[in-house]
Amino acid sequence: MSPQASQALLVSEEPRQDPEPSCCFDDWVPAWEQKSKHRTTVAGVTAPLLEALVEAGLEGRTVLDVGCGIGDLSMAAIGRGAERATGIELSPKAIEVGTAIALERGLQDRMTFRAGDGSKVDLPQADVVVLNRVFCCYPDIESLVTHSLGAAGSVYAFTAPPSSGLASVFVRVFGWFANGWYRLRERKFHGFRVFVHDIERIDERVRAAGFHPIRRERKRFVWHLAVYAR
Predict the structure, then answer these.
(1) Which of 8, 58, 74, 139 could potentially form a cystine with 65 if both were Cys, beta carbons 3.0 to 4.6 Å apart?
(2) CA dist., res. 209 & res. 100, Å (int)
(3) Percent residues over pLDDT 70 in the chain
């Protein structure tokens, strides 16, 4: 990819502002890239989230994808009617790969990547704000929710591990073992941990911002999917 082509998509690179390196995110990008060659969206929960966003209304709207990874959800949203999308991502490698994929799909004029921490950097206003599998990577959920809500115009959506029921027990046990592994390999993961946040507290915060739920359901057992509109 030429520097000129890359610059067409990576319009600005915000200061990282986070005290730790981006840990393992770069390491996961090759697997995401490989999956993107065979299907539109990488993670299993992303497809039902996309359908829920279509139901909420994507036609002609702008999308802000916080923690976008390689941008598969954003590009799929454009394919389902969104006017354009912006992805915010910590991993430089994810942005590099996402930029290449957007160019391959002819979306270079409608897909923008910005580097930075979604809980800290300036977020552009968008009709639809989505955080897919992002809350579980953040210890300070209040800042992330408040900051991202401030950018949302009409729709706010997220997927996150459930915080109640049998599925919650499973993800908490899995998280306990995963975090133990991350501690053992501290030099590689740089303090990275996974978290199960209180879904009802997040719901209250979103409702307080003037949104009402149009979809709240369990998907693939270990994910809570929620879409709100106003």
Answers:
(1) 74
(2) 36
(3) 90
Burial of 209 (0-12, 13-18, 19+ CB in 10 A): middle
Q: What is the per-residue pLDDT for 179? A: 95
CB 104 within 8 A of CB 98: no
* Reported confidence tier of residue 126, pLDDT bands at 50, 70, 90: very high
DSSP 8-state secondary structure symbol assigned to residue 93 = H
Terminal CA-CA length for the chain: 41
pTM, two decimals, is: 0.89
Strand pairing of 223-229 and 152-160?
antiparallel
> Does any domain span residue 168?
no
Whether residue 187 is contained in a domain is answered as no
- Tokens 């990547």, located at residue: 113
Say if CB 106 and CB 163 are below 8 A apart: no
